[in-house]
Automatic annotation (TrEMBL):
One of its GO terms (molecular function) is DNA binding. Residues 11-59 form the Helix-turn-helix domain. Coiled coil: none annotated. This is Helix-turn-helix domain-containing protein. Pfam families: HTH_17 (PF12728). It comes from Aeromicrobium flavum.
Length: 66
């Protein structure tokens, strides 16, 4: 009998999220505060951010004719 495993979301720390986005942790905290990046924590554990939420926070800049 074949069973399929559910793919679990990948969570990163505040510092890892900042490194992934090439910004400071302060910037990530501001984006969490303004609701751009959803963040989670369980009890007193450190803040965690889903990797796919980081990808969703990025916006494409439209091409501009210079």
């Amino acid at each position: 009998m074949a069973t399929t495993k559910k793919k679990l979301p990948v969570y990163v720390s505040l510092e890892e999220a900042a490194e992934i986005l090439s910004v400071s942790t302060k910037t990530v905290r501001r984006r969490i505060s303004d609701g751009t990046i959803p963040a989670y924590h369980c009890g007193r554990r450190p803040i965690r951010i889903r990797l796919e939420d980081l990808e969703g926070a990025l916006r494409r800049i439209p091409a501009i004719d210079w």
